[in-house]
Amino acid sequence: MTTQTTDSTASALELPAPDDTMTWLGDRSRGSLERAREMVRSLKADPPSDALAVLRAWNDVEIEVSNARASAAVYSETNPEKDVREAADVTMQQVDEFATDLGLDGELFEIFDALSSEGLDPTAARLLGRQLRDFRRSGVDRDETTRARLRELAQLELRASQEFGRNMREGARSIRVRPEDLAGMPADWLSSHEPDDDGLITVSTDYPDSVPVGTFCSVPATRRAISLERLNIAWPANDEVLQRLLTLRAEHAGLLGYKDWADFTAETKMIRTGSAINEFIDKIVAASTDAAQRDKQIVLDRLRQDDPDAQDIYGYDLPYYSELVRKERFDVDAQLLRTFFRFDAVLQGLLAVTGRLFGLTWGPVPDAPVWSPDVAAYDVLRDGTRIGRIYLDLHPREGKYKHAAQFTLVEGVRGRQLPEGVLVCNFSRGLMEHSEVTTFFHEFGHLIHHIVGGAQDWVEFTGVATEWDFVEAPSQMLEEWAWDPTVLAEFAVDADGAVIPEALVRRMRTADDFGKGYLARTQMFYAALSVGIHQHRPEDLTTAVREAQQRYSVFPYIEHTHFQCAFGHLDGYSSGYYTYMWSLVIAKDMFSAFHAEDLFEPHVAARYRDRVLAPGGSKDAADLVADFLGRPYTFDAYAAWLAE
Ligand SMILES: [Zn+2]
C-alpha cells in the first residue's frame, strides 16, 4: 500500500444556495456526463497501447460518472423541493443508461481485452482484472442476439422490481377493532387513534401501527389479526411478479453461463458461490440452535402463564412475550432509558468518541451552503490536514428519505477530489431511544469508512467499495461502542446531570442479547428462502416459504399467509439476504481484537483504521481483515457470543 499522503490541492465541493440548486445540479450532472462521453469517444478513437494509460483514461471516465450520479443521488433523497428531487431522479436514470451502455460497448471491451497486466503494480493489475470481469458479467463478449436479449432482460427485471415495490407500498392493509381490543397500548398511541363514528378503531399494517400493537397489545386476537394482514400484503399480486422476476433472473444468469442467479450474484462477493451460501446458513443454524431453543423455551413458558394450553409460540405472539420477558427478567425500562439520550449530547459524544478512536477532528463549517437549515457540515481533519467533508442531515422532513443511510456526495480520489459523504437519518430532536443511538453509530461507521478509505488512486476502489457482504462489518462493529458503559458515560447524562449507571447499561445489553439465538434462526429462514427460490425455482412459492420456515426457523408457519409477497429484500438483495449475518460474523471477529476493558487502545484502533478502512476496496476484504487480525478471520468469536 502506498503511504498515506495528505493533499491540500484537492478542495471541497461548493454546494449551491437553495435557489441555485436546479441550475447547479443540471450543470454538474450534465457537464460530468458530457465530459465522460467525450473521454470515451477519444479513448475509442485513439486507444493507448499501454495498459496504465488506458486505466488512467478509464479512471477519468469513472470519476465523471460517479460525480454525475452522486450529487443527484443525494438530492433525490433529501432535497426539500419536489421538482429538484424529480430532476435528480431523471438524472440518475440517464447516468444508469450511460453506464449500462458502457458495459455492453464491444469496442471498449476490445481495448481492455488486448491489454497485458505485465508491469502493472498490484492495485492497477487488480483494476484491470476487475474491469474485464465486469465487462464479461454484462455480456459484452456475447453475440449480438444475446446482447440484445440481455439489454431487454435488464429492462424487464427493472420493471418487475418496480412493480414488486409498488405493490408493497400500495398494498397496506388494516383491521378495525373495538377500543377494548387494544388493551395494553400506550396512552400516546391510543390518543392518536380515535374511534370512528361506528366506534371502531383502524389499525394499519404500516410499522407505526403494527409494530406497537404486536409488542404491547395484550389481546391475543388483535395481535393475531394484524399479523395475518401483514403477512398477506401484496398477496396474490406479488406472487406472480416474483415468479416472473425469478424466471427473468434465471434466463439472465443462464445466458451468461452461470448455473443460476445465486451463483451469478455471489461471484463478486466474499462468499463466491451459491452453494457456499447454503453451507454458511447450515453453519449458523448449527451454532445458534442451543441458544435458540433455550430462549424460545423461556418465552413459551411465559406464554403458558397466560395460556396454559399453548403447544407452541407463533410469530404473532413473539414480540409481545419477548418484550414481557425483557421487562420482567432484566428490569430494563425503555421510558427511563430515553432520559439519558438527548440528541445534542449524543451527537457531540459520537463525534468525540469516533474522533479519539480514529485520530480525526471534526471541524464545523457553519458557512457551507446546505440544502436545508437542518443540515450541518464538518471538515474531517487528520493531523491538521483536511481529508474530507461530511454533512449530517439527521431529522425527519417531508419528502425526505425515511430510513437511515450514508450517501456518497463525492468519491475520494487522491490528489483530485476529497471524499465527501452525507448521513441521512430520521432521529428525534429531543430524547432518543437507545436503538436510535446504535443506529447513529452504525451509520457513522459507513461515513468514516467512506472518508478514511477515500484516498485512492482509482475511484473504483474508493471508500466503501469493498465486497457487498463485507460492507456492513465496520458499521456493525462500531455499534459495540454504543453499548460500552465507559463510552456511554461520556455523553449519556440525564436532565439533572446524572450519568447513566453502569449496571443499567449492562442490563440493557443482556436484555438486548436475549433471543439472539432464535433471531439468528429466523434470519437463516429468510436467507435460505432468498437463496433457495433462486436455486430451485419452486412451482409454489407459499410451499417454499412453509418448508424453509419449518427447517430453519424455530417458530411455526402461520396457515394462510404469504410472506414472500412483501419480503422486499427478494427484490433488492435477491439471493443475498445472508450478507447481514456474514458481515456480523466478521464484525464480531474484528471486535475481538479490541480489549473489552479499553476500547480506545490507540495501537489497535490505528491498526484497524490503517489496515481495514484506509485501503477501501483496493484489496479483497478477507485480506484486509487478515492484515488487521494477523490471521484469517474465523467463526469463533461469533459462536462464542451466541453461546454466552
Ligand atoms: Zn449499514
In short:
The protein is α+β, with helices and mostly antiparallel strands. It contains 26 helices and seven strands. The chain is globular.
Number of strands: 7
**Number of H- or I-type helical stretches:** 26
The helix/strand class is: alpha+beta
Q: Averaging pLDDT over every residue, what do you get?
A: 94
Strand order of the largest sheet: 3-4-5-7-6
The stretches of 5 or more residues where confidence is low (pLDDT under 50) are 1-8
Strand content: 5-15%
Summarize the biggest pleated sheet: 5 strands, mixed
The gyration radius over C-alpha positions equals 26 Å
Shape: globular
Estimated helix fraction: 55-70%
Cα(first) to Cα(last) distance is 38 Å
Ligands (ions, cofactors included): zinc ion
Question: What are the defining features of this structure?
Answer:
644 residues; alpha+beta; two-stranded antiparallel sheet; 26 helices; 57% helix; 6% strand; binds zinc ion
Topology of this structure?
Layout: H1 21-45, H2 51-78, H3 82-103, H4 106-113, H5 122-138, H6 144-169, E1 174-177, H7 187-191, E2 201-204, H8 207-216, H9 220-230, H10 237-255, H11 261-266, H12 274-306, H13 318-330, H14 334-338, H15 343-358, E3 361-364, E4 376-382, E5 385-393, E6 405-410, E7 420-424, H16 434-452, H17 473-478, H18 485-489, H19 502-513, H20 516-536, H21 541-552, H22 569-572, H23 579-591, H24 602-613, H25 621-629, H26 636-643
Parallel strand pairs: 5-7
Antiparallel strand pairs: 1-2, 3-4, 4-5, 6-7
Helix pairs in contact: 1-2, 1-3, 2-3, 6-10, 8-9, 12-13, 12-20, 13-19, 20-21, 23-26, 24-25
